[in-house]
Write a structure and sequence with these properties.
The protein is α/β, with parallel strands linked by helices. The protein contains 16 helices and 12 strands. The protein has 2 domains: 250 residues, Rossmann fold; 161 residues, Rossmann fold. The strands form 2 sheets. It has a 7-stranded parallel beta sheet, sandwiched between helices. The chain has a 5-stranded parallel beta sheet with strand order 10-9-8-11-12, with helices on both faces.
Length: 425
């Protein structure tokens, strides 16, 4: 069977879908992953066929969103940030659509995340093949908590439910005309209705959710089509070896604190690096700065702090005392899997949701929004993460539960059911 996976976003969005692709490939399927050129090496290292998605530079888009947030004192709501990121897609929809169309030729199934809405599913509709969503955040309507991009606090059962319909209507309203124009001009398909995005999450075709039930238990009002499978992790490359400098640093003292914010800090990297270094000094902890996409950088690092560009999380996180990061879905998953306390400094979109979830589970201190980040607050959180025995125990236990799950195998089984159903229909 041939499966095409279309995924847009950052490394944290793409890497889990590559892991899912590897699982499908191990099950005997032929896999193509269509994503940004930036991630071609990641896909090809997994020996999976790569197809470029043209029209959108993920690094530039992320820098633009975080830069605007910085200029507005980072007080924008998550929904405003989500609307802005969706608006950046508009001009690119024809090229994204054409890329997905090319990648799906000959496929028996199309799997995608939800960005941009209506595009991969339209390609699948034209090719008369099933389409499935593979998502890293809880997107299904529920009364138990509101849409994560609207609030981290419950509004009550009825309003929580309505928050999803309202968000879907706003998000779909931004891209609907552009998607429909592309559908009609390039696929000769009729326009999608205003209710399209809401109906996706009541569809009889299963949705895959790549997170752990121990982190987000399945809401009681989710349908059987919503499958929480467990996380989708890429295992460490056997050919990868850590830099000698990093190994020597880890062996030269107690486990350090890892601090990294991925692509979030591109527009104020010196300031955030300085806050991080001063917080480590106040907390009397050693530290590793992960520079990442954002280029977290400081000219003169004090003794006991090491800067490295990129290290596989699955290798590094089990060797540290606590992890500080922005709260992206992928990095949050890696930190929880390692079984060490997590300190989240949320910047945009879904990150406040993951910060609150980590805090509610008791496996990390209260999140520190970027707008409130100071050396004193970060130092206090680091000290709490290192010294709170109960927190460390809870984090270790949650890590054991997550490592015991086989999210990829569970997802592959659901995909097999979809294919079987499609073939017999």
């Amino acid at each position: 069977m041939k499966v095409t996976i279309c995924v847009l976003g950052s490394m944290g969005d793409v890497q889990p879908l590559v892991a899912l692709g590897k699982g499908l490939q191990s099950a005997g399927h032929s896999i193509t992953i269509a994503t940004h050129d930036e991630f071609a090496p990641l896909v090809q290292q997994s020996e999976i066929r790569f197809h470029p998605i043209r029209g959108l530079d993920p690094k530039q888009s992320m820098q633009k969103i975080t830069g605007e947030a910085s200029q507005n004192s980072l007080q924008q709501s998550q929904i405003v940030q989500s609307i802005r990121s969706t608006q950046l897609l508009l001009a690119a929809i024809p090229e994204i659509g054409e890329s997905c169309w090319e990648a799906c030729q000959g496929a028996d199934l199309c799997v995608s995340n939800v960005i941009p809405p209506g595009v991969p599913s339209s390609v699948a509709e034209k090719l008369a093949i099933p389409h499935m969503y593979a998502l890293l955040q809880p997107t299904e309507r529920t009364s138990e908590f509101p849409n994560m991009l609207l609030s981290t606090r419950s509004f009550g059962a009825a309003v929580n439910q309505l928050s999803y319909s309202g968000f879907f209507l706003v998000l779909w309203g931004i891209v609907r005309s552009r998607v429909n124009r592309w559908r009609q001009q390039h696929l000769s398909l009729p326009p999608l209705k205003w209710s399209y995005l809401s109906e996706v999450f009541s569809s009889p075709i299963p949705r895959l959710y790549g997170f752990s039930r121990h982190v987000i238990p399945k809401p009681k009002d989710w349908s059987e089509q919503a499958n929480i499978t467990g996380y989708w992790f890429i295992e460490q490359d056997a050919d990868w070896h850590p830099p000698k400098e990093l190994v020597n640093f880890l062996e030269s003292g107690p486990p350090p604190i890892s601090i990294g914010f991925g692509s979030m800090v591109a527009n104020n990297k010196e300031e955030i690096a300085e806050i991080s270094i001063q917080a480590l000094t106040l907390a009397k902890q050693r530290g590793i700065l992960l520079t990442g996409w954002g280029g977290l950088h400081y000219d003169r690092l004090p003794e006991g702090i090491l800067a490295v560009d990129s290290v596989p999380h699955e290798w590094l996180f089990p060797r540290i005392a606590a992890v500080v990061h922005h709260g992206g879905a992928g990095t949050t998953a890696a930190g929880l899997r390692a079984g060490v306390p997590t300190i989240i400094v949320p910047f945009i979109t879904d990150q406040p949701f993951w910060g609150k979830r980590v805090y509610d589970l008791g496996v990390g201190p209260k999140p520190i929004p970027r707008s409130r980040l100071t050396k004193e607050r970060l130092a206090k959180a680091i000290t709490e993460a290192v010294t709170d025995f109960g927190m460390r125990q809870r984090a270790a236990e949650l890590g054991r539960k997550i490592r015991a799950e086989d999210g990829i195998a569970n997802a592959v089984e659901v995909i097999h059911q979809v294919i079987k159903r499609h073939r017999t229909s």
